[in-house]
Amino acid sequence: MAARRVGMFGGAFDPPHRAHRALAETALEQLQLDVLHILPTGQAWHKSRTLSAAEHRVAMCQRAFGDLPRVVLDEREIHRLGPSYTADTLSELQREYPGAELFLVLGADQLLAFKTWVRWEEVLELATLAVANRAADIGAHAALDQTRETDLSGVELPFQPLRMPLRNISATDVRARVGQSAPDAGALGVLVPEAVASYISQHHLYQPPQ
Ligand code: ATP
Q1: What CATH number does the domain containing 156 carry?
Q2: β-pairing, 71-73 with 101-107?
Q3: 176 lies in a domain?
Q4: Could you read off the pLDDT of 105-159 as tens digits, one per residue?
Q5: Is residue 183 part of a domain?
Q6: DSSP reduced 3-state for 90
Q7: What is the pLDDT of residues 58-93, one digit of tens each?
Q8: Residue 116 sits in which domain range?
Q9: φ, ψ dihedrals at 39, nearest 5°
Q10: Contact yes or no for 53/13 (Cβ under 8 A)
Q11: Is the CB of 171 inside a 6 Å radius of any atom of ligand 1?
């Protein structure tokens, strides 16, 4: 039987962290998804920073999400030639799961930027936006327990809120911490799943060039 409720959760995942994992778990449960596709991006058109090699990001996603039920690690955006757009991925998923209801899982910062996305109107036609709030001050060294939510009251877009405790973690913060003090896998485990922490240590990711 074709899946009826299909989620898509895209990100650079450089690296995947504990808030990403919580968001995936929340989406699976609250949206009652039959399947959730996790999509590490190619070199994302809207990020100016060069991402870590796709091979590392995929390996870390496997470690971060691989044990969750009904999750598919989907590498299509990495392999797509040229720029990769969410509208294209959703169209493909619609063809692959005929008649399914599609959900696009994202955080509040991405909702605020949504109208800058290429063909965002098409995205809205294809999928329901399912949005987790995110602490208002994100970035390197914002307090982990920061509880001020991003204000989404001015957003004039239909979306379904996901209820999830705020976790003030960003991949930027993780990379900055590793780069500054090379914390051991245990200390890093507060921010990223243990298996991701050991992968980062083993492969010396996010270290400044010697
Ligand atoms: P970076 O700091 O490098 O920009 P990031 O932490 O925002 O990365 P991404 O891989 O860009 O991580 O995010 C993928 C998706 O996860 C986006 O929709 C983003 O909004 C969401 N997300 C990331 N961190 C959180 C968080 N702490 N709470 C809620 N949503 C989050």
Answers
A1: 3.40.50.620
A2: unpaired
A3: no
A4: 999 999 999 999 999 999 999 999 999 999 876 554 555 555 688 999 999 999 9
A5: no
A6: helix
A7: 999 999 999 999 999 999 999 998 888 999 999 999
A8: 5-170
A9: -120, 95
A10: no
A11: yes
Q: How far is CA 174 from CA 63, 162, 192, 205, 206, in A?
A: 16, 24, 8, 11, 9
pLDDT for position 83? 84
- pLDDT tens figures, 1-38: 566 999 999 999 999 999 999 999 999 999 999 999 99
Which is the closest atom of ligand 1 to the Cα of 106?
A: 18
Please tell me the total count of domains within the chain: 1
The answer, yes or no, to whether the previous bond of 40 is cis (omega within 30 of 0) is no
Judge whether 200 lies within some domain. Answer: no
37: Cα separation from own chain's centroid: 11
Ligand 1 center to 11 CA (angstroms): 7
Distance 108 CA to ligand 1 centre (A): 9
Report if residue 58 sits inside a domain: yes
* Cα angle, residue 165 at apex, residues 169 and 199 outer, rounded to 5°: 35
